[in-house]
């Protein structure tokens, strides 16, 4: 099946209010262009250099999302064009994003990554760290970033009940966040959860944004 066909099939299997991020990491520009020609405008990458190279080569009406772990010293390279950073998991990183955004006179949308999986290796904040970050004076003083929601990855397992439990946990945290008074830099609308293997469960659990790679572009 062609990329366009797979994209079409996935789009028709997700509700209109759920945003599809086409995860194109490791894939050549020709593959991304095929998705672009089929109407896809949001692409997710996990390495800054690769994302920058693709951004340079591709049409400028694309929204580029950084979905991977971000090192503070690399933030400056993507701030000029990145639309949404999914994996913000520390105050230190957020400070650097804000600092670079000020320099470039931009406003950068961010999702805070929450650790919901049982694996140690997945990045993210726990509930306590999330509260601490949001209540810190440093966060409140940031002028050029906006937290637009949360992101999380479930454990890589066949156990559907476990995945569901983890997504439900993230949804609860998202609802709690939405119940807080919004401020200039806290306006949560987006819950980024679900990948090729688990996006149907994620949507059932309240996801508003799915990040799908291999089901569109093939295995990596
Ligand atoms: C690679 C990646 C995805 C997409 O994974 P697939 O299983 O190929 O759909 C989604 N989210 C993150 C954070 C990723 O790194």
Percent strand equals 15-25%
What is the tally of helical segments?
Answer: 10
Give the number of DSSP strands: 8
Distance between the termini: 16 Å
Would you give an account of this structure?
The longest helix has 19 residues. The chain contains ten helices and eight strands. It starts with a helix and ends with a helix. An eight-stranded parallel beta sheet has the order 7-6-5-4-3-2-1-8. It is globular. The model has no long low-confidence stretch (mean pLDDT 97). It is an alpha/beta fold and 220 residues long. Helix 8 links the parallel strand 6 and strand 7. The protein binds pyridoxal-5'-phosphate. The site of pyridoxal-5'-phosphate has 14 residues, from strand 8 and helix 10.
Give the SSE map.
Elements: H1 3-13, E1 19-23, H2 29-37, E2 42-45, H3 48-57, E3 63-66, H4 75-78, E4 84-88, H5 91-103, E5 108-114, H6 127-135, H7 137-140, E6 145-152, H8 160-178, E7 186-192, H9 199-204, E8 209-212, H10 214-217
Parallel strand pairs: 1-2, 1-8, 2-3, 3-4, 4-5, 5-6, 6-7
The structure holds pyridoxal-5'-phosphate (PLP).
Pyridoxal-5'-phosphate binds at residues 23, 25, 46, 67-68, 153, 195-197, 211-215.
């Amino acid at each position: 099946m062609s990329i366009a066909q797979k994209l079409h099939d996935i789009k028709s299997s997700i509700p209109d209010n759920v945003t599809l991020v086409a995860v194109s990491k490791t894939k050549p520009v020709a593959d991304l262009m095929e998705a672009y020609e089929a109407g896809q405008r949001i692409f997710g990458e996990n390495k800054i250099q690769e994302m920058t190279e693709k951004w340079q080569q591709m049409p400028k009406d694309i929204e580029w999302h950084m979905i991977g772990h971000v090192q503070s010293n690399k933030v400056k390279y993507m701030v000029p064009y990145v639309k949404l950073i999914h994996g913000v998991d520390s105050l230190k990183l957020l400070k650097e994003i804000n600092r670079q955004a000020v320099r470039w006179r931009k406003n950068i949308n961010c999702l805070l990554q929450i650790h919901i999986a049982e694996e140690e290796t997945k990045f993210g904040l726990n509930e306590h760290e999330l509260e601490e970050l949001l209540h810190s004076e440093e966060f409140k003083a940031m002028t050029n970033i906006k937290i637009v929601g949360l992101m999380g990855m479930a454990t890589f397992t066949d156990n559907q009940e476990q995945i569901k439990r983890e997504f439900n946990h993230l949804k609860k945290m998202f609802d709690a966040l939405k119940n807080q008074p919004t401020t200039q830099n806290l306006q949560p609308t987006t819950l980024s959860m679900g990948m090729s293997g688990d996006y149907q469960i994620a949507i059932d659990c309240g996801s508003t944004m799915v990040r799908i790679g291999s089901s569109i572009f093939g295995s990596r």
